[in-house]
Amino acid sequence: MAKVSVYNMEGKEVDSMELNDAVFAAPINEHLVHMAVVLQLANKRQGTQSAKTRSEVSGGGRKPWRQKGTGHARQGSTRSPQWTGGGVVFAPKPRDYSFKMNRKEKAAAIKSVLTSKVNENKLYVLDELKFDEAKTKKMVAVMNSLNVSKALVVTAEKDEDVLKVTGNLQEARAVASNSLNVYDMLKYDSVIMTKQAVEKIEEVYA
Which candidate among 70, 82, 162, 205 keeps its CA 20 to 30 Å from the CA of 150? Predict the structure, then answer.
C-alpha cells in the first residue's frame, strides 16, 4: 500500500496515511480517461445550434434564367448553397450530444486519474479543512502553505464554507467526494483532499 503524508492547514506534516491500492494504485486506462472527459463536455453542450437548408430558406421559387443560351451555368434556384443568401449544405440542427458510460468504466477512469496524481505527487491529504470565517484569503493561505498553484479541493460531504472560500478563485474549485469527476481532476494541477474524503472515496471505489 502506498503511503502519503497528512498535512495540517499550515502545510506541516502531522501524520501519514496508507492508501488503498485498488483505488490509488489502479491500472491507468488512458482510453477510458479520454472517454470520460469527452462524455462530460458532450453532456454540457446545449445542442441548440441551427441553420437553414435550401428547402427552408425563403425565396428562390423561379429559375433565375433559362436553361440554355445565356452563357451562364444552369441554375435552378437562387437559394442553392452556392448563392449568397442560399441554404447551408448539411446545416447543423438541434440535437442531443450526450452519451453514456458504464458505471464500471467511469469508476476505472476516476481510479486511473487518482493513481496518476499519486504517482506525480500531486495528491495532498489534509487532516481537516475547517475555517473560522469563510474568506477567500484563508483558502489562498492553505494553497500557499502546500505550494499548490491550481487545485481541486475534495471534501467528504458538501461543505458550504469550503465552497465559499473557493468560489472567487479561478485556480481552485471545491467538490464533495460523491461529485468527484475526471474532467475537474485533470483541469486542476493538484488535488487536495481531506482525510475523510479519502476514506469515503475508498469506500465507494475499492
Answer: 205
